[in-house]
Specification:
CATH architecture: Alpha-Beta Barrel
Radius of gyration: 21 Å
Distance between the termini: 66 Å
Shape: globular
CATH topology: TIM Barrel
Helix content: 40-55%
Low-confidence stretches: 1-24
Strand content: 15-25%
CATH class: Alpha Beta
Number of helices: 9
Largest sheet: 6 strands, parallel
């Protein structure tokens, strides 16, 4: 009888494989790692030393982590793609800082890791700290970078709400969301339908406005993994600081990150 059961189990397994039946999916839990800028020294609370970033990427590579495009995770939330594999990680950057071009790009090229950059267009080719549109186009040509919205000029919506009447606030918010989307698509092509909230500020009103502006997903800076319990409308990201290195980085990847209060 035991031999019969074993043979029957083997037959069922082979049949399921042949018709493409998937195994019971694992519990999805993906850290989205958010960076801002890099440098030889820690110039401010948002700077990660380039050597630290390089060590983090090496750790991912050497320890079996799979860096997936943010879009792949989004497609899963939309029910249009397979669940991310265990030990999947997403890498994103906010602000399109010039150090993405000078410091991040060579390391990303070495490991061939995909990155999504959230851009606020008013700074591009204008602010000294930001990249130019030509540099962004060069990043896009690598096939490793995608570009999404961080509003048009990175306003603090909480502060603006205190200053403006409701109608004026509605106008500001929609201009920030639609103008950014339009400018990035015009300059770089592709579809811009993902939004990173400036300063991580969002509420139900802002989420409704984002939906109206054509965004399918938005992102906060809440320090936890993106899991089955999250919603695509607002997904959490880990805001990386220079202290997130060594053991602290390992703990972050396993969902045991040290709690930090980061001045944005």
């Amino acid at each position: 009888m035991s031999r019969f059961v074993a043979v029957l189990s083997l037959v069922i397994s082979l049949c399921c494989s042949s018709v493409g039946f998937a195994a019971v999916p694992h519990d999805v839990s993906v850290p989205i790692l958010l960076y801002h800028r890099f440098g030889a020294t820690v110039a401010d609370g948002m700077t990660v030393k380039t050597s630290v970033f390089e060590a983090q990427m090496k750790y991912l590579h050497d320890n079996g982590y799979k860096v997936i495009p943010l879009r792949q995770l989004v497609l899963w939330y939309q029910g249009k793609g397979a669940a991310p594999a265990p030990k999947s990680v997403v890498i994103v950057e906010d602000d399109a800082h010039r150090s993405v071009y000078s410091d991040m790009l060579p390391i990303i090229r070495r490991y061939r890791f995909p990155v999504t950059v959230f851009v606020y267009p008013s700074a591009i080719s204008n602010a000294k700290y930001a990249m130019t549109w030509d540099q962004l186009r060069e990043l896009k040509k690598t096939g490793l970078f995608d570009f999404q919205s961080h509003t048009y000029w990175h306003p603090n919506f909480k502060r603006e709400r205190r200053k403006l009447q409701p109608a004026a606030l509605d106008k500001l918010v929609m201009e920030q969301l639609t103008k950014s989307k339009r400018k990035i698509e015009q300059e770089l092509g592709g579809s811009v339908d993902l939004l990173a909230w400036p300063f991580g500020i969002y509420d139900d009103y802002l989420l409704r406005q984002a939906r109206s502006a054509g965004y399918v997903g938005t992102f906060s800076i809440e320090r936890r993994h993106a899991s089955r319990s999250e919603k695509l409308q607002i997904l959490p990201r880990y805001l990386l600081v220079n202290a997130d290195q060594g053991k602290a980085f390992e703990q972050l990847l396993t969902g045991n990150a040290v709690k930090r209060n980061v001045a944005y």
